[in-house]
Amino acid sequence: MYISKKKLFYPISKGLRKYLHYYDRETQLPVKYEDLLHYSDSFPYYDKQGHDTLWESVMYEQQTQQELNKGLTRIYALLKTDGDMSVMEHLYVSRIDYCTFGNSNPFRVQIMNQLNDNYDYFYVKRADASRIYGLELEHILSPSRFNYLVDGDSLIEEHIAGIPGDTFIKDYLNRKSANKVRIAKEFVKFNERCFIRLLGDMRSYNYVVDVTPDFEDEQYRVRPIDFDQQSYEGKKTMYLPQFFKDNNAIVDLVMKLLKPDVVKQYQNEERTLMFRRLKSARYRLKDLIDCMRQDTISTPEKIEQLKRELAQHHKAKEFLKCKCMGDIVRLNLKIILVKVPKLVDVKFKV
Fold first, then answer.
1. H-state helical runs in 113-258
2. CA atoms within 13 A on the CB side of 61
3. How far apart are CA 334 and CA 340, in angstroms?
């Protein structure tokens, strides 16, 4: 499947900036993305198995390090406790990593609790309009809420805990304790969520699997961790995780363990849940979609391709009248979640 090698960055528009301010996503940060670029040294970061993670741990001059530690701890407090530093006095920055690949080149900040050595992460990235729309749609329409903050061209994101999809497929999928039917069910639901809100490029390393022990078995939740490809590509299959070869092992489980009627049941369940979330946050979603409809987050060529493919998929000529990605997202949500009798099911196939 073809994927744009380098996605274009789109600045935050005035309309989106106003939206972020109204919904308390924008705040003044003590440390910006550019501040973290001035490191003095770096070395490769290896995982516990000794494999190169393609992240680099970075170091700063002593005075700079002290200023960053104070500012980054403050950011963590803003993210977790709305800035209440009284419960953060025992926290400190234990490591800062820099990602040398991908579009956003993020910094990952490890915050350590000096009382018990427990740690957490958050990310500092360059703000991109596509990604912010993806984060907001995730917050509004997915089963999970999401915390992030924006200041100028800097974006702060909380860490999403879970097993990376590629690691899960390799090391966890064939465990004896794994409930493969539940894994297949969750992937169908995840596939549905991505397509409905048009989140693309969900290759196995762009999502995590949250495994929760139940009283008799395990439950699974698949969560995206990369939102750069929100409503950007023109090919319809880019928004369906089932068509990425990285996910073939799980797609095979779906086809082997779930009958077509069961797949349809799970798709309808997810659509119903998303429709309920849409109804409960309809004013916020309308404000967001209105911003998208006035914004540029893709190229004219990709917009033309996607609206033609979705018009054919849904058998709905209304898509051909769409002028931007915001129009396409709005219509896709409307057709799938509102016009239930006219749904066109997504078949599972590789």
1. 129-141, 165-167, 180-197, 248-257
2. 5
3. 9
How far is residue 114's CA from residue 91's CA, in Å, rounded to a whole number? 6
Dihedrals φ, ψ of 35, to 5°?
-65, -30
Give CA–CA dist 166/207, Å, rounded: 9
Q: Which pLDDT does position 344 carry in this prediction?
A: 46
Band (341; pLDDT cuts 50, 70, 90): very low
- Count Cβ atoms below 10 Å from residue 346 Cβ, excluding itself: 20
d(CA 234, CA 251): 23
Distance CA 36, CA 85 (A): 22
Q: Where are the chain's structural domains?
A: 26-127+147-158, 163-342
Structure tokens at 21: 């301010």
Q: Find the range with the poorest average confidence among 100-114, 182-196, 268-282, 305-319.
A: 100-114
Buried b / exposed e across 198-211, counting CB within 10 Å, b at 16+?
bbbbbbbebbbbeb
The CA-atom distances, in angstroms, between 226 and each of 1, 35, 192, 297 are 18, 23, 17, 16
